[in-house]
Design a protein that fits this description.
The complex is a heterodimer of chains A (424) and B (238). Chain A has 424 residues and is of the alpha+beta class. Chain A has 2 domains: 185 residues, no CATH class; 224 residues, no CATH class. In chain A, strand 4 and strand 5 form a beta hairpin. In chain A, helix 1 crosses helix 12, helix 2 runs antiparallel to helix 10 and helix 2 packs across helix 12. Chain A is elongated and about 110 Å long. Chain A starts with a helix and ends with a helix. In chain A, 38% of the residues are buried. In chain B, strands 1, 2, 3, 5 and 6 form a 5-stranded antiparallel beta sheet that branches. A 5-stranded parallel beta sheet of chain B has the order 7-8-9-4-10, sandwiched between helices. In chain B, helix 1 packs across helix 3 and helix 7 runs parallel beside helix 8. Chain B has a single domain, classed as Rossmann fold (3-Layer(aba) Sandwich), CATH 3.40.50. Chain B starts with a helix and ends in a 6-residue tail after the last strand. With 238 residues, chain B is α/β, with parallel strands linked by helices. Classes of the chains: A alpha+beta (424), B alpha/beta (238). The interface between A and B is medium-sized, with 29 and 41 residues.
């Protein structure tokens, strides 16, 4: 019965002071939204990051560290240390234990986006996210030597359509001065958005890669020695080497044995990595930063809770009469102190509910925009236990800080009496 | 809490004396000589007019009687119970059960409406809730009507009402659930003469009906004629 009285009094008191408290509650709401939002995005980004590539059991490249190999093959960051001989790739292809292989040849770029030379296995076997296949939004996969398929991000940012002709550049970099002007490529298809680095690359055949480099043996085009489209159609372009290969293994128990065999390959120094392991190692490196971010937003919440206490302490002076009345009517100091705790926790709960609503509304509005403009796929989903815990910590912290004014009031109300007694 | 309510209420309703004070002394400052209060006994249902100059300890005496201050010496029996023998929680509950209090001003909880202010004691004390006939809201309305608070003010915010109305609402709160004793600390000092007399008449009339004793503190000697018992404090220090 007393608990119910305390609750009704606390709620009535909050409602009475709603104008002053609305601002404090808003501050708290914003900081809780920030905390929750960052935690939410962290989970989402981690999910999206670790599912950049899936279904691929091994990535094979020239001998190097696993992070380097992962970065240049999957994230298109950095360069390969060396190539794999075509003969090596062929011998891997003949291994019956390997279900499929996707050859990858890198080195050129198109307006800052990587050119990836591969074959039809890329479309067929590459998986991302929760085992999602690649899909063509428009057109079809390349067939001819000078056909190119664009990633969704490239097509969107450069506003390319199927049927357009584009000129690829030699080497990396956003602005390149040596372009493959003699061998323009025709856009035959555009991939659907994936939210992965796949969106930020263009795809050509291995033969196309070879064809446009004829006459470029010295690193620049030697006039008269490059091919025209007509000449190219009559030639065979089997490459000498590729940069890396993605491998799918049907019997996954064999993965570690095959990895060891490739690492000990006698023909040339190779590295085979498990993409999942490399991805989580990469995420661990970046994890420090995001943990710091959550820590900072935690402090923002604490700051606004301290602001809340400052306001409650200021209001306390105005509440002396009311407390005297309650005391004289027989309310115990504990009941009066509990009013502060209830009010503070109720404010924190209100802020949490509003932050949830704000976050959900914000996400619902922003997620189509994020996908369209940044290829970020962030969906509305139920909160994880970790996020609920973080959210529950807010009223718990409010309870803890409310002990300050509550104790103050408890002490004050024990000494409160009539008239001049109240002033002493 | 409930068990304490029972134990204190058993002894009190049959008690013949409202207040019994003996050898009471109190000091805010241990270095100073304590204020000493005259011994007194007030019969149940009788009213007492308490007056004296400023600083003579009128409010201190009320706080001691209400159990909100602890005396250095002596004892206070209210309705037969030595209230300073009770623990802090039991003393608060005793006050909720058996005492009504009216202050000089700022008597009401600003965020409760008129009726909720009046029924507040019934929510703090099961005993007063039971004694409110036929129920707490009904008695509150009856008291408010008797104290001439218009019906459209009952659900209104108390901060919008005049001082005179606020004091009468405080009187209704003190009277609800028929406590044995009402402690009134200069409740009329903020009222004009007409209001003051009417307030006092209504208070004493309704208190009489409930067999409630009123201890009324005022420096206004013209009010003394309403009371059968008088006591003057001089602020003696022993």
């Amino acid at each position: 019965m007393k608990a119910r009285l305390a609750l009704t009094l606390a709620l009535a008191s909050l409602w009475h002071r709603r104008k002053v408290l609305a601002l404090v509650c808003l501050t708290l709401t914003l900081s809780v939204s920030l905390l929750l939002g960052i935690q939410y995005l962290r989970t989402e980004v981690k999910q999206s990051f670790t599912s950049t590539i899936s279904g691929t059991d091994l990535i094979v490249g020239a001998r190097s560290g696993q992070l380097n190999l992962l970065l240049y093959t999957v994230f298109h960051i950095g360069d390969a240390t060396n190539n794999i001989r075509w003969s090596t790739y062929q011998s891997l292809k003949e291994d019956s234990r390997l279900d499929w292989l996707i050859p990858i040849s890198l080195g050129d770029s198109y307006r800052g986006n990587r050119v990836v030379a591969t074959d039809e296995n890329f479309l067929k076997h590459f998986r991302y996210g929760r085992d999602l296949p690649l899909e063509l939004a428009e057109g079809q996969w390349f067939e001819g030597v000078f056909d190119v398929v664009l990633g969704a991000g490239v097509a969107r940012s450069l506003a390319h359509q199927v049927g357009e002709e584009i000129v690829l550049s030699h080497g990396g970099g956003r602005t390149s001065f040596s372009n493959h002007d003699d061998t323009p490529f025709t856009v035959t298809g555009i991939l659907a958005p994936t939210g992965t680095p796949v969106d930020q690359a263009v795809y050509i055949g291995l033969d196309g890669m070879e064809a446009m480099h004829v006459g470029w043996e010295s690193g620049v085009a030697i006039p008269g020695r490059t091919l025209t489209r007509e000449q190219a159609a009559r030639r065979d372009f089997t490459p000498d080497a590729i940069t890396a290969a993605f491998i799918g293994i049907e019997r996954q128990v064999l993965t570690f044995r095959i990895q060891r065999e490739i690492n000990q390959f006698a023909g040339e120094p190779l590295s085979a990595i498990l993409p999942g392991v490399a991805l989580s190692e990469l995420w661990r490196l970046m994890g420090q930063f995001e943990r710091a971010l959550v820590g900072i937003t935690g402090f923002v919440v604490i700051t606004s809770l301290i602001g809340l206490i400052a306001v409650l302490l200021t209001l306390q002076a105005q509440r002396a009469h009311e407390i005297a009345v309650l005391r004289a009517t027989g309310a115990s100091p504990a009941l009066i102190a509990s009013l502060y705790i209830l009010e503070c926790v109720a404010l924190a709960l209100t802020a949490c509910v509003m932050a949830l609503a704000l976050g959900m509304a914000g996400l619902a509005l922003a997620s189509p925009w994020l996908l369209a403009n940044y290829g970020l796929q962030i969906e509305l989903r139920p909160l994880t236990p970790e996020e609920w815990t973080l959210l529950a910590l807010v009223p718990a912290a409010a309870f803890a800080v409310a002990l300050i004014p509550a104790f103050n009031t408890w002490r004050q109300s024990r000494r409160l009496g009539f008239g001049e007694g109240a002033d002493q | 809490m409930t068990s304490k309510t029972d134990s204190t209420s058993n002894s009190s309703p049959n008690a013949e004396t409202a207040i019994e004070v003996s050898g009471l002394g109190f000091s805010w400052d241990p270095v100073q000589a304590p204020l000493s209060f005259p011994d007194m006994t007030l019969k149940r249902g009788d009213h007492l007019f308490l007056h004296g100059p400023s600083g003579s300890g009128k409010s201190t005496l009320l706080s001691l009687l209400a159990g909100m201050l602890r005396p250095n010496t002596g004892s206070v029996r209210v309705l037969g119970t030595d209230i300073h023998r009770l623990g802090a929680g039991a003393r608060d509950q005793f006050r909720a059960d058996h005492m009504g209090v009216i202050f000089q001003q700022f008597n009401l909880v600003p965020y409760l409406n008129t009726r909720a202010n009046v029924t507040l004691p019934c929510r703090l004390s099961e005993l007063r809730k039971q004694r409110a006939e036929p129920g707490a809201p009904e008695e509150a309305e009856r008291l408010l009507a008797a104290l001439s608070i218009p019906e459209d003010h009952w659900q209104r915010k108390v901060t919008r009402l005049s001082i005179g109305q606020q004091q009468r609402i405080a009187a209704a709160r003190a009277l609800i659930g028929a406590p044995g004793l009402i402690l009134a600390d200069e409740p009329t000092s903020a009222l004009d003469t007409d209001n003051r007399d009417r307030f006092l008449e209504l208070l004493l009339h309704l208190a009489h009906r409930h067999n409630t004793s009123v201890l009324f503190v005022s420096h206004d000697q013209s009010l003394a004629r309403h009371f059968g018992n008088h006591l003057e404090l001089r602020g003696d220090r022993t």
